[in-house]
Amino acid sequence: MASLTPTAHAEACRYPLAPSLPLIIISALGADTAAESNPYLAEVARAESTAAQAHADHCVLRCAPMDVDLAQVARQIEDFSTVYGCFSGGRVPWLAVEDVLDLAAVLATEPARRAGRVYEITGHESVTVATTVDRLASALGSRADYHVLEPAQLVDALCVSVGWSLDVALRVPHHQQWIGIEHPTSPLVEQALGRPPRLLEACIAHAAASVAGPAPEPGPGTADKLAAPTKGTRS
After folding, report:
1. What is the rounded distance in angstroms from the CA atom of residue 93 to the CA atom of residue 121?
2. How confident is the model over 139-186, as pLDDT tens digits?
3. May I ask the CATH class of domain 6-227?
4. Of 130, 166, 174, 164, whose CA–CA distance to 40 is shortest?
5. CB atoms near residue 50 (< 10 Å)
6. Which domain of life, per UniProt (predicted)?
7. 77-91 b/e with 16+ CB inside 10 Å = b?
8. Could you tell me which residue, 224 or 19, shows the higher pLDDT?
9. 61: nearest Cα among 95, 35, 26
10. What is the C-alpha R_g of the chain?
11. Separation of alpha carbons 94 and 105, rounded Å
C-alpha cells in the first residue's frame, strides 16, 4: 500500500477481498500522527482507513521504510555514483521486507493477535540516509556522493531529466521526507518471531542485489536516474 503510485494503487484495489480470509494491512509509520504535515502519509492514512473499514477481521502493520525502498538508490549509485534526494535528516530503522512477510504469516494464523490491532515495526538499526548511501556503495564496490535537493528541484529533475509525469513526481519528495523521519526501533519483530529483525547488512545486500536485474518501474521512491540540476550539499 505505502509504495504504490496512484495507478498501481487503483489496480491493486480493483480486486475484491476474500471475505473468509484475514486482512493484513501494510501501512507506514506515522500514518496516525504525521498525516496532516505530509501528503504521502495522508494518502496512506486514507487507504489504511478504507481497507480497515472494509474488513472486520484485520490488523495493521505500520512499517518503517523497507529495503525495497533502497533499490532505486542502489540503481543511482550503480549508474551515476551519486544519489540526489530531499530525505529528512533523521536516522532510518530500515526494515527487511522478509520480516514483514514473516510477521504477516504469524498474524494470519493467530486471530487473537489481529482483532483490529495496530503494530508498529522497524528494523534492527537506525542510520542516516547519508550513512546508508555509504554502506550501499561499499556493498556495490563503489563510492557515491549524496546531495540534498530542495523538493522543487527534485520534482523538476524528475520531470525534465527522467520524463516522469508531474502527478508522480510530486509524490517523491513527500515519500523521501517520510523516509527520513526519525523513529525509535521497535521490539515487535523479535517479540512475535522469537528472533531479532534482519540486520541492516541484510537490507543493504538485498538492495545491492536488486541492481543485477532490470531497472525498477517509476514509483514514489528515489528516482532511478537523475541528472544533477544544481550543486547540492552532502549530508
Report:
1. 9
2. 999 999 999 999 999 999 889 987 888 888 888 899 999 998 898 999
3. alpha beta
4. 174
5. 12
6. Bacteria
7. bbebebbbbbbbeeb
8. 19
9. 26
10. 18
11. 20
